[in-house]
Amino acid sequence: MSNNKKKITWTAEKYQRLLAATIAAHPEIKINYNHVAAMFGEGATYDSIETRFRNVKREAKILQAEIESGSRPAVAPPTPRKRKLANGSAPSTPRKIGGAGRARKMATVEKTPVKQESTQEEDSIVAWSGSSDYSD
């Protein structure tokens, strides 16, 4: 049932299978049923948690046997990164054409006026022409 094109519908059975797959993938983990019962709450006891995990461990053994027998691949198929086109190439990202989307107002920077100094050459030109910027 591992078809990577289908979306998983998460039911209670799928969650149990996920837990079983986790147990099968990590056989080195030893579960402390007393701690699990305390975390679970709702009156759960060591025995009730351990009994529930019997079913999960049984399913984990079945999943592990399927991998070892070769009826299911040991490696999950990779998640596709991009959708493929009919010709086999990946589609390009669509680009926005000007005017689409929200317009941004460019920040304006006010320039501080700079006082210009006159050079000696400019002073001599003004003196020679006999004109002055100052009126009396």
UniProtKB/TrEMBL annotation:
Residues 68-136 are annotated as: Disordered. This is Myb-like domain-containing protein. It comes from Morchella conica CCBAS932.
